[in-house]
Amino acid sequence: MWIKILAYIVTFIVSAGISALGIMLAYQQYQQNKKPIFTTLLYQQIFLFSFLFYGVWGNISLRMVIADLNIGEALSAKLAVFIPIIGIPFMVVSWFMLLKFANNCNGRRLTKTFIFTFFPTFVVLAFALVFLIQKEYIYVPENADLFVVRILVVLNLVVHLFFLLPFFRKTKDAGLLKESGLDKNQVLIVFAATLLYSCVMFFFNRFGYISTCIALVVLFASNLVLPAIIRLNNQTTPENGNMDFQSFCSFYEISKREAEIIQEICSGKSNKAIADKLFITLQTVKDHNHRIFTKTGVKSRVQLANLVREKTGEN
């Protein structure tokens, strides 16, 4: 008995530390970059670990409390399942933030149709599931909380598949993707971590408290992968004001001609003046401007000049 309690205490401490680390990493990215995508990542981590803590540890704590109460086993199981179900909105919001983050990284915005249908979809799914269970079209095993876990695992996998998609489509904003530091291989690592804990969670409490503790550590640790990768990527990126112009061009994959145009823009020249100085057509300058804006993630000449000053410290 004491070994079981000690195992849960250690697992609780480890999961609490992982949760704090995940939120801290996301917060550091937000503080360092002040970009909307990192605000989204921070919210995603907060809602995700809030659900994990509330849903998982709420369930375990409640089971320990009601184990000593003189109530029926059926009622005990229902109460234990009820706690994580209440916390599901936290998970749904974290899924929304994850999809928003993936799309924003690639210069896309979630459509209004998606935003207004995302949350109602899960409400409809919940009512449909309850209806099917009541009509006995879906068999619920005796271990009802494991049944709920498996449903959430499947939904989570589906959401993470949609998380992958924006990174495998043509990006609309290479600058934002550069800021996040994510590439296709890294988002596949994130998905692999999701697959790992999904497989482990299918055996949640199957073999008693030992498998439960292992599953929980894997679950919390796997959700740390995304902010950890982004943090590691950004550690290799020079801080604002520490780049020279050549490093700036290298980081954003700016060509030699584009670099010349950036310098002229920063000096305040108009497109016409740049075309005359570089002996190219006005349309060519505009085409270069478009590519530069796409690579750096800015929307205007003023934003570009500000970005160069911010990154290089040059006036």
From TrEMBL:
Matching Pfam families: GerE
Membrane recorded as keyword: yes
Keywords, in A-Z order: DNA-binding, Membrane, Transcription, Transcription regulation, Transmembrane, Transmembrane helix
Presence of the UniProt keyword Transit peptide in the record: no
Transmembrane segment boundaries: 6-25, 77-102, 114-134, 146-165, 186-203, 209-230
Protein origin, superkingdom: Bacteria
Gene Ontology biological process terms, A to Z: regulation of DNA-templated transcription
UniProt name for this protein: LuxR family transcriptional regulator
Residues annotated as domain HTH luxR-type: 247-312
